[in-house]
Write a structure and sequence with these properties.
mainly beta; 14 strands; 2 helices; Immunoglobulin-like; 11-stranded antiparallel beta sheet; 3-stranded antiparallel beta sheet
Length: 236
């Protein structure tokens, strides 16, 4: 049955705080590490880094509490590591230690094993730092000021939502796909936030956002224009 139906039928179940959509965000998540670098790893303190084995990359997760329960968004972050990632650890200097091996399983990384260290080079990436659920849509928080003309255009964004089957089978296709209408985009005075008014929100569904038209104040596109918010609860 569809996952939301299973949750209603089985009250002892709890939904995932954040789904990592298959292939889009990876195929075999492994370790987790919370960024506590005190600003030494860019603007992502308090967020979770998620290691990915098959695709040899690291994703980023932002979470918030709605009605006392965690939910939030997953974002692409770093890719191209030398081997399948199995361990993450932030060092005292704020760098990210990445432990890897491809022994026993295949990975896009070509090395059999390895250890890599990721330092922030001091340049702030243009990214969606946070994605907050609202009663009528979402608020995006960016790492750098946006171009107000592009960011205030609803056509700069597209959104759809979907869920998965709950069953004994291995994995599930995305099911019950529906498009969301974005009717307004309001940019804050500091140009770091955009409030999206969205129609067709559905609780317990993944809401996939694309921001292809958004540009920074200097005209740069987003490093990663996609985000995946697990909307377990719509705020009241």
């Amino acid at each position: 049955m569809p996952y939301p139906d299973a949750l209603h039928a089985l009250p002892e179940m709890r939904p995932p705080a954040v789904w990592l959509p298959y292939v889009k965000m990876g195929r075999s998540g492994t370790d987790l590490a919370t960024c506590n670098a005190g600003g030494k790893f860019g603007p992502f303190d308090g967020q979770m880094m998620v290691a990915e084995f098959t695709d040899a990359k690291v994703s980023r997760v932002f979470m918030e509490k709605v009605d006392g329960e965690y939910q939030g968004a997953a974002f692409p972050f770093l890719s191209g590591f030398a081997s399948g990632i199995v361990r993450l650890l932030f060092a005292p200097d704020g760098s990210l230690m990445v432990g890897m091996t491809s022994r026993g399983w295949s990975s896009l990384g070509t090395k059999s094993y390895g250890l890599q260290r990721v330092h922030w080079n001091g340049t702030t990436p243009f990214a969606i730092r946070e994605m907050h659920a609202l009663p009528d849509g979402f608020e995006l928080v960016f790492t750098m000021p946006v171009d107000p003309g592009a960011a205030a255009n609803p056509a700069s964004y597209t959104m759809k939502n979907y869920t998965y089957f709950y069953s004994g089978a291995y994995g599930s296709d995305e099911i019950q796909n529906e498009s969301n209408t974005i009717t307004a985009a309001t940019v804050s005075d500091d140009r770091l936030r955009v409030r999206l008014k969205v129609g067709g929100l559905r609780e317990l569904y993944v809401h996939e956002l694309r921001c292809e038209g958004v540009r920074s104040a200097i005209g740069a596109p987003l490093d990663h224009p996609d985000a995946y918010y697990t909307l377990n609860r719509i705020p009241k």
